[in-house]
Write a structure and sequence with these properties.
Elements: H1 6-12, H2 14-27, H3 34-47, E1 51-55, H4 58-68, E2 76-79, H5 86-93, E3 97-100, H6 112-115, E4 123-127, H7 138-145, E5 151-155, E6 163-164, E7 167-168, E8 175-179, E9 193-197, H8 200-209, E10 214-216, E11 219-220, H9 231-241, H10 244-262, E12 282-285, H11 289-298, H12 326-334, E13 335-338, H13 346-363, H14 381-386, H15 389-395
Parallel strand pairs: 2-3, 2-4, 4-5, 5-8
Antiparallel strand pairs: 1-9, 6-7, 8-9, 10-11, 12-13
Helix pairs in contact: 2-9, 3-9, 4-5, 4-8, 10-13, 11-13
Length: about 400
């Protein structure tokens, strides 16, 4: 059993993938070839965003988003301490400072109720991560940000294809960023990513920044990076888009089967009832994680831990956040991701579930269950926004605007 079965995915789309790759080899436009514009148009249409800009990775997408917003040294960006390192890393790479807000115990996503208290006059953006394939409470976060003129950047690296209150992830805020890393729900065969926005000026800035700040060939209007997504990688994503809806349905089917077998016995991270998940990971909580992992490995069941050390406890980042974030730290000690993907059949789900329950029984790692059934939506945007009223009085007047970066 594979943790993520990319081989079966390729075999199911081999003719489409090979045909798309061969077309690029035939026309030879490996950088910004016609597949790049085609993919951008397809992705924009799917999300409903006015603009899509493909880039070289999900991390580069975050960096370019902040560069386009003019975020730089002395600025602060509020984000989660419980995620892959890229969110905080990108903030530091543009010279700004990440400021953490703890996460929800039920989902692992940033807790919108805690964001307002982290806002200062230096806050330029809020960067929620749509963890494990499920968007954070984006309406609440947008409502908190709006009075200050603060941008919201959704890190949707794991959640392309998910929905929030009927809207597509990547089109829920000022800018959405996603990743096409091979193991993502929609992945290429290398690195790739994309940005989404409805703002024409931001889109122009992001397109220029990804090509070394060029507005025209050898005319550089701003500082940029070498951040283009290769034509070959765009071709692979175009081929995979043909089966993407089916693959999302199969991921959700597998997750529902896991839920039915596990949720009354093992704590499972929840999917709130006002949104959907594409289940980039299916994650449970266990107490004696390493013992459970060893028993599952002996049974031929691969697992992973997303993520064992919160960002604020990483050596390179510890100086940024001396405070504890107890929910993030508790999740980091217990989260365990199970095999997941569109080619994980019902028999495979049942095999994993049986092995997990047996491993927990043997190690006494089972604790009272957390069900994903009927989990309420997070507190309303209005309620979360009202929590920021006291902070608004002192910070709003001095918080910079989020106009695109321009040259001096």
């Amino acid at each position: 059993m594979d943790f993520i079965d990319l081989k079966s995915q390729y075999l199911a789309s081999r003719e489409l993938i090979n045909g798309r790759i061969q077309a690029v080899l035939d026309h030879g436009q490996y950088i910004l070839g016609p597949e790049v514009a085609e993919l951008e148009a397809r992705l924009a249409a799917r999300t409903g965003a006015r603009h899509c800009v493909t880039v070289s990775s999900g991390t580069e997408a975050l960096i370019i988003a902040m560069m386009a917003l003019g975020i730089t040294a002395g600025d602060e960006v509020i984000t989660t301490p419980f995620s892959f390192i890229a969110a905080a890393e990108a903030v530091l790479l543009v010279g700004a400072t990440p400021v953490f807000a703890d996460v929800e115990a039920a989902t692992g996503n940033i807790d919108a109720r805690l964001v307002a208290e982290r806002i200062t006059p230096r806050t330029r953006a809020i960067l929620p991560v749509s963890l494990y394939g499920q968007p954070a409470d984006m309406d609440a976060i947008n409502a908190i940000a709006e009075p200050y003129g603060i941008a919201v950047i959704e890190d949707a690296a794991q959640s392309f294809g998910a929905t929030y209150r009927g809207r597509q992830s990547c089109h829920l805020s000022t800018i959405g960023c996603t990743s096409f890393f091979p193991s993502k729900p929609l992945g290429c065969y290398g690195d790739g990513g994309a940005l989404f926005t409805d703002d024409d000026a931001l889109a122009q800035a992001m397109r220029e920044i990804r090509v070394h700040g060029q507005s025209h060939r050898y005319v550089h209007t701003r500082v940029g990076v070498g951040g283009r997504m290769d034509t070959l990688q765009c071709a692979v994503v175009l081929a995979k888009l043909e089966r993407f809806e089916w693959e999302v349905e199969q991921r959700q089917r597998a997750a529902a089967e896991y839920d039915a077998l596990l949720r009354h016995q093992i704590p499972v991270l929840a999917v709130r009832n006002d949104r959907s998940s594409v289940h980039a990971q299916y994650t449970v909580l266990v107490d004696d994680r390493e013992q459970v992992r060893r028993r599952l490995a002996a049974a031929g069941i691969p697992t992973a831990v997303h993520y064992p050390v919160p960002i604020h406890r990483q050596a390179a980042y510890a100086h940024l956040a001396p405070d504890a974030y107890p929910v993030a730290e508790g999740l980091a000690r217990r989260v365990l991701s199970l095999p997941m993907g569109p080619f994980l059949d019902s028999a495979g789900v049942a095999r994993v579930a049986r092995a997990l329950l047996e491993a927990c029984r043997q190690t006494r790692s089972a604790t009272p269950a957390v069900t994903t059934e009927g989990v309420a939506a997070a507190p309303s945007a209005a309620a979360s926004a009202s929590a920021s009223a006291s902070a608004a009085a002192s910070a709003a007047a001095s918080t910079p605007s989020t106009t695109p970066a321009t040259t001096s």
